[in-house]
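Good morning N.,

You mentioned wanting to compare the apo and holo forms, so I went ahead and generated the holo version with copper (II) ion. This is what I fed in:
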Amino acid sequence: MKPHIAAFAALTLLIAPAAFAETTVEHVWVRATSGLGRVTAGYGVIANTGAKADKLLSVTTPDAKMAEIHESKNQMARGGVISMEPVNAVPIPAGGKLDMKPGGFHVMIMQLSRPLKAGETLPLVFKFEKQGAVKVEAKVAPLGAAGYPAN
Ligand SMILES: [Cu+2]
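and this is what came out, ligand included:
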């Protein structure tokens, strides 16, 4: 980031914080790992409050070698088999929301450098075309969790 842009961003933050963060990422959680498993899935709610479309490009974490955006699909034609596929980018329309939840879009996190226990956090960086990098601390939920942990 160039210095004058940083200064402008800081100024904007002081005056109108809502106008600065147009694409937000909230309620981010991942499932605890099981045994020696070093794979997990992450979920959260992305909202674009801006007037222009944004695009989720990637998600990374310093605590794993690989992270991919996946979409789960219930393939009725194949007898209701649930399959998932990597996706390159997910558009977030102006005023739109992307609810990443079990059975839909998720972040597949592979080759974690440590096990994840419920109650811990995992740093994630969501990269957007317009908003840039959004850093969040994902809550680690128990293995069987279906949604954002209550505490
Ligand atoms: Cu997946």
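The helical segments are 3-15, 17-20.

Happy to go through it together on a call whenever suits you.

Best,
F.
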